[in-house]
Sequence to fold (328 residues):
Amino acid sequence: SEGHADIVLIAPATANTIGKLASGIDDTPVTTVAATAIGSRILVMIAPAMHEPLYDHPIVQENISRLKKIGVEFIEPEVSEGKAKIASTENIVRSIIARFSTSQSRDLEGRRVLVTAGPTIEHIDPVRVVTNRSSGKMGVAIAEEVASRGADTTLILGPGTVNPPSAIKTIRVESTSELLEAVLGELKSSTPDLVFAAGAPTDYRPVMVAPKKIKTREKPQINLELRATPKILEEIRRASPKTFLVAFKTEHKVSNEELIDEAFKIIHEKNADLVAANDVGLEGVGFQADTNELYVVDGRKKVVHIPLAEKREVARQLVDLAVKRMRD
Fold:
């Protein structure tokens, strides 16, 4: 409404500003606005930026904890080169969108949801890898959507090209074995109600990994022997047979009928509840795209088409379907 803010964002916020806010000091325009917002029960979000030793200082961390206890939310900095750098603009915007989603539904309140996203990598030598072109954007969009609906959300993220909001619990992995270990750890710690297996683990790994970088002048030609990596879907179902499982299937330049048939095979082979299939050979549906198009199949071979749209909108429709099927 006029004259009222829904959120106050401080970006960047120094250790000095954080300390003043934690102590109730409002001697600058920034601290006065923030203190007034806190007292008016308006959400304050802070994106810290400072040198890493300052960020790690026990008093600074204590001040952050004090502010969190009174409802202030933090967008975690990106720590590198000895600095706690302000989160990227994209990450800040994503955090705010996740906090104030356009979706009014809280239909996942009290539910626990696990999402996997992004690729995995398997080393050939210390600098070369076998991987795929997955960006992780679809899985991150799903994690944002379920979190906005009230779910206790955990995201297991491979080395893609997108960063999730800091408010979402995120476990970073690289290899398929690390992905499997993280998934099983989450399944054992607290059985999720819903799993979106949107990650794209590499299907094969080298049987032998060179301990040092392979020199091309010494070996102008090499032969790679590859072995299949663990099947994550099978392990999820074995560890948590009652969890509602949404699997994903990617094909390249096939007919819609072939795409749906391949998705249906996953239903039976992996005992998934829903399979979301896409054809990355189509324009706007590729790995790095910001848009996606899905055909979602269930055990009765009922198909729901989610037309090409921004991945967050596709995520919303997919989560709608999953929630509805969980209730059926």
Q: What stands out?
A: The longest strand covers residues 244-251. The chain has a mean pLDDT of 93.
